[in-house]
Amino acid sequence: MGGWDRAGWSKRVGLNWAAIKMVKDNLFWGTGAGNFLVRLPFYQKEVGSYWLQPVHNIGLLILSEWGLLGGVWLGSMFRRWGKKYKDGGGRKVSSGGGISNRNDGSLLGDLTTK
After folding, report:
1. What angle, rounded to 10 degrees, do the helices at 8-25 and 36-47 form?
2. For residues 97 and 110, what is the distance between their CA atoms, to the nearest angstrom?
3. pLDDT tens string 31-75
4. Of 5, 15, 71, 106, which has the fewest beta carbons less than 10 angstroms from its beta carbon?
5. Distance CA 73, CA 107 (A)
6. Do residues 44 and 53 touch, judged by C-beta distance below 8 A?
């Protein structure tokens, strides 16, 4: 059954502290993409909380897995994508009602042409 359990808050705080410790130990490079759960048991011993879930804070998850360099790179990519699509980015509305960068009405035009 889903929902909030009595220990939910303390579990999430424990995950946050484990993520912060991971960031401190792997500040520039991180633990590697997808390695938060792999490294978590080592950090949960220090925190005293045992819950095998990813941290429920996307910023801490990105920093712990990708480090500062990966976080800066990912942030710059999101910024670049945001600027590109802020003013429409050259997109047109196709005859089928979808948004496309190509004239053939493909919804995946941006992904397939670049």
Report:
1. 110
2. 16
3. 999 999 999 999 888 666 678 889 989 999 999 999 999 989 988
4. 5
5. 27
6. no
